[in-house]
Design goal:
By secondary structure, the protein is mainly alpha-helical. The chain has 32 helices and 13 strands. Strands 5, 6, 7, 8, 10, 11 and 12 form a 7-stranded mixed β-sheet that branches. Strands 1-2 form a two-stranded antiparallel ribbon. The chain has a two-stranded antiparallel sheet with strand order 3-4. It comes from Astyanax mexicanus.
Length: 760
Amino acid sequence: MSEIIGLDQYVVSRPLYTEDSFTENHEKVERKHKTTLDHVKQYFTCDSKRVKNAALSLVPIVGWMKMYRVKEWLLGDIVSGVSTGLVAILQGLAYSLLASLPAWYGLYAAFFPVIIYFFLGTSRHISVGAFPVLSLMVGAVVTRMVPDGGPTVNITGLEGLSIDDQRAMVSASLTFLIGIFQLGMGLLQVGFVVIYLSDTLVSGFTTAAAVHILISQLKFIFGLSVPGFSGPLAIIYILESIFTQITSTNIHDLVTAIVVMVVVFAVKEINERFKSKLPVPIPIEVIMTIIACGVSYAFNFKDNHGVDVVGLIPDSFETPVAPNIEVFKETAVDAFPMAIVGFAISFAVAKVYAVKHDYVIDGNQELIAFGVSNIFGGAFKSLASSTALSRSAVQESTGGKTQIAGILSAIIVLIVTLAIGFLLEPLPKSVLGAVVIVNLKGMLMQMREVPYLWKKDRLDCIIWIVTFLASIFLGLDLGLAVGLGVELLAVVFRTQFPRCSVLANISGTDIYRDRKDYINIYEPEGVKIFRIPAPIFFANIDFFRGKLLDAVGFNPLRILRKRNKALRKIRKLIKKGELSVTIVSPLTLTHSRESEDETNTEELDQPVDFSDLPVQVNWRAELPASISVPPVDIHSLVLDFSAVSFIDISALKGLKTALKEFIRIDVEIYIVACDPYIIEKLKSCSFFDHEIKTSIFFVTLHDAMLHILERHPPLSVSEKVSGSRTFSPPPYSIRLAYNATKKTLCQIVNLMCNVFYSIT
């Protein structure tokens, strides 16, 4: 029964519950758990409803097209499509340079994948196309397989082709393979893999990628000819090559790039500051590209000043080609992390907009959509596609509501490619490099997270720094692997070495918190409450037992062995007739130390056995006859399992051993707030026996504490002063005395004890 007293207080009156009594008083619903065979049958069962749902999930366009609001959304999608298309053209040209490919292959990435994603994608706001990090990773593979001096490996199907055509074929085959990996993961329903890429890891990785991109664009900014490098320390070799040629800088490229960067950066800041007042962001990249094309054409930068320009852009698409199987063999190891990175970035961006606009995205369907998009694009020699945050931001901020904006942007790309692509031929590559560098601001500014992470979570900070440095010096592929490894080690570290604590009661409440954190707390004498904030498994069971011993302040196994040794000594002395046993009230006598007998350790670990003694020993009283046993200052140990999500078989054995060690030295064990499924597992694994019973489990911590206080009432002030105890000692205690040479002293002591006993 509960009663509300005011709006900020409540009173609950109910019985005190153990898990057993709670189960008896509250009937559970009987649920039939499906077997593996049941799941297999259900998976392969086919009916009209499942077919319809499967079709709708595979082709999401059917779902959102039915709810499309033409009057409200169409105009916004048109404006957004045109704006995004112009940005996609420029970024496609720029990002193709990162992949060491001719510029027009970036335009293909803004067209072919977009068409497929329009039908299969579940996000309504992301802009599909080239992504700088993915383009850079593709470029590393392309330059490794086809360096400036020609291919280093003999690949069938590339004979007789120019270097540009060879690189395009490698890129297309790699894109096709990336799509196969993504499609395979989508069909196998393993979209959950992205959960292992934390925001911290992705931040460190993308920041390192931004540094790589920045350095890769310096050769265009300075107008230098720098060979392609790949593998570990490639960034060092690129910088070395740039600085050895720095005196050969083309001043026209440098000045053009600086002017473009300053103007684009300034206008982007204006767009950001006044975005609430501007109907659409100022397309400054497009404006500066048009101006740069005009100036370059008017002054003939290419011939008069040696400026490297985009050059010929074909006015038609290339015919589709089959991927090269030998390239598959050489790039399979590289393609898989690219598939993960491309999907992880696009899914993260899609999730942001899905939350903002209140709709659901499907990770597995996104994998299928990007997989088919890359397979289709790879057949037409498209660059590997993902999404870019800046381009998606343009699509969403200019009023885009659905992927109709995406298909319109693809139409803009189509028009430019087929009709007016020749106008971009005089565009200096330094302008594209400048646009790329300015768009890196968001990723580079992620470095500001490091001080924050260091203050809030140093383990996350270490993950960020290690991922960043590994990606910088080892390359993006190895850097991602290293970062993922460190992240998984961090998860293991957090679960293997959790922050255990000793709890105490917040006075006047049924709330228990770490006793180190609060002032006004109540900790009952003789009770320890130990909290384990992690699952218990094979890797942390020893740590858990060590922390438990630290919390109670003694080793129960050592005390158990001491007690068994003491009993052996008592039996030995009684057998020799050197000890006499007198039943008295609990007394404490002075005792001296004596060397302990060598005994069998296994026998000492068994429960204390009083069966052959006339009385039981009160271990809390002081023992005579040079018998020393460490005192135990607690009578109850409470284990808070509220945060324990699972226990494995290996840990069960260690836990059972630890509990028995305490039980065998007369410390009562209570486990509280344990998950019912864990209790069922304990029962099925024969965890309970004559020593460990199900009655030790309580529904809540407060239930257990009330039960303990009922069994062991706290001492009154007078009892504390007199030193008497309330925790029900055994009814008798042993009084031991030496015979033989100390016979007279023993008689005197016995007489005094008998007089005291008769008086009391």
